Amino acid sequence: MNIQETIQNLKELHSGNPWHGTAILPILQGVAYDKVNRKTAHQSNSIGQILEHMLSWRSFIQRKLEGDKPFDIQVNSRADWNKDKTYTQEEWQTLIDEFEKSHQTLCKIIASLDKDFLLKTVPGRNYDYTFLLNGLSQHDLYHIGQIALLNSLL
């Protein structure tokens, strides 16, 4: 995927009309606050925790795109999953606002890149930026599916 296709894909997933169904933003906006901290018997993370996890990895991607070579998130660390967190209504809205801001910021950063940048290896990883940005879409789609399912079950 080239830079323009990557941006278009992110925009479509975020608030467009993606092939799979409802975009991310309408799903998040459709979650009533009383469901944000609840879990099912088989789900170890709440909707709020899942969205915070999504934001953590978006931050990782943003920092790598901006050249922060040493920054990392250890899988299953508190930075990856804040499992003990309970969100106030204000904090929930802040997470949604941060997701929106993250989307705008990532699209702006990606638009500023040249095509050769996508082929560079991400510092500290064994893959390139094309793989990382494709992974962003996959990661968001996977977790927004979890959020949509939890929202319908709770």
From TrEMBL:
Pfam families: DinB_2. Residues 24-147 form the DinB-like domain. It comes from the Bacteria. InterPro entries: DinB-like, DinB/YfiT-like. This is DinB family protein. It comes from Rapidithrix thailandica.
